[in-house]
């Protein structure tokens, strides 16, 4: 066989194989689907370029799940042509990734990478609460997960509550159950049943009096206390209702001062955890476009900022923070009101932000493709000028 024929043959074979991993779904799926099947579905629009970028990832996920013998099927659906299905999943933007398991639907909102999506699929498709049967299994789990919520004790109303919280929030974090004697000796418990949170090499015991209802507590505490934060994580952290204290770092190699400020934040926050963990999450961030948009000016790197994601507010230190004392004064000021909140999401701020973004966009256009931008802008202006000229010309 000549090479061209072989090539075409392999291409056709490959296309058939990959399409076998991912099923194209339409509205009829709503009636043909059997309840016992779990699906992960990508909703796309034909014109959406982000959706196209996701195609290879989606095929990898399809083939990976198939080769693992996973019970989860992989589908995709043109949401513009299949309104019924898109409506059922309340799809509002593209691409949307949703998991359908029994009667429950789960929204995926993390990074759109193969590993992150596979991790989500495994977590959601299995039992939402996994049991830890031995100390070894416990230790294996804790070495793999930064954050774990663990129910300890016999059947109880608290367990029922824990199960239903897990069913809803398993999209975000990991839930387990364990018998008392499975846990390491240094985990001391005053009473059972209880819910424990393991994170940042320590643990916390949930109590309703101190922590409020279980669901909001899990939602509030499901992030690491100190971490590298990207815009996905920052956006998600908004749901916790806590403030996020950040050190903003330059995108590429960090200068000495950046390393120093990062260490300073890590040190202060780990030593003063009892003071700050109620109010803040901490972390460092590189590539600060989101923060620039929020503050509406360029940011100095490295520097500190605290953001309130519930209202798009932010706090800046009065003096540049260089020392431990200054950092603590700044954080204390944010908590007790000594440092004023700026920004926010009122109408004036929103208009200002719109103008800022339009300006940033135009500047970018003019620096990247100056000639084209000039024509694009001058064309409507010329028409407007001609229009005014014709309208305002004195009639004879
Ligand atoms: C998924 O998230 C989007 C955006 O937050 C929301 O509009 C939609 O209703 C959610 N869908 C489901 C099934 O929860
Ligand atoms: C953050 O914003 C929310 C919503 O507007 C507000 O209730 C809360 O008090 C703010 N937190 C701080 C510390 O300003």
TrEMBL record:
Domain of life: Eukaryota
Catalyzed reaction equations: Catalyzes the rearrangement of -S-S- bonds in proteins
Signal sequence annotation: 1-22
UniProt keyword annotation of DNA repair present: no
Keywords tagged on the record: Disulfide bond, Endoplasmic reticulum, Glycoprotein, Isomerase, Membrane, Redox-active center, Signal, Transmembrane, Transmembrane helix
InterPro entries: PDI_TMX3 (IPR052250), Thioredoxin_domain (IPR013766)
Record's bilayer topology term: Single-pass membrane protein
EC number: 5.3.4.1
Entry keyword annotation includes Endoplasmic reticulum: yes
Subcellular localization: Endoplasmic reticulum membrane
Annotated Gene Ontology cellular component terms: cell surface; endoplasmic reticulum membrane
Residue ranges of the TM segments: 371-392
Summary of the function given for this chain in its UniProt record: Probable disulfide isomerase, which participates in the folding of proteins containing disulfide bonds. May act as a dithiol oxidase. Acts as a regulator of endoplasmic reticulum-mitochondria contact sites via its ability to regulate redox signals.
Name of the protein in question: protein disulfide-isomerase
